Amino acid sequence: HQREPGQKGSGGGAETHMASDGREWHGRNCGLGEHGEIAGGTEANALALTPSATRAGDKAPLERLLMSAIERPSVRAGGRFPAAAHSDIPVTMQGVVDLAALKDMLAKSVSVGGRALVSIMLANNETGVIQPVREAANLVHEAGGLLHVEAVQGPGRMELDMMALGADLLT
Hints:
- This protein is an alpha/beta fold.
- Helix 4 runs parallel beside helix 5.
- 33% of the residues lie in helices and 13% in strands.
- The two termini are 31 Å apart.
- The protein is globular, with a radius of gyration of 17 Å.
- It has 6 helices and 5 strands; from the N terminus they run H-H-E-H-E-H-E-H-E-H-E.
- The protein has a 5-stranded parallel beta sheet with strand order 2-1-3-4-5, sandwiched between helices.
């Protein structure tokens, strides 16, 4: 017999309390104001990676999805971007996003009149590498793009502040 969290019966109240505690923790510790709630990282990435994502006052569509070559499968699937719009940002031998390559890719996108959504993981659970997200955010924003940070490995292990990271979208 399976129950939904919050369903009446043995344990439902405790599950509801745990979910509520989780929402409060994220609100306090991730620098979030308004935020939505979803089932998990795969769903969150599919929803975040969309050409219609915007920042306040900016309505121009996003033409490209640039993602680091080491992203998780749920990011590599590309959300709502067509496959032809996906491009990989190379990483160094140390597994760090190549910021010079990112800058070149963003310049190329701007030169043809397009904007990009860039997706970079915060930390790699296999290598321990922490990506230069703030530096990437600066490059992305200078080019008029948006930054998505997949931060599933961050909570509880490191400080996670969406504003400090410069992320427009955080999953």
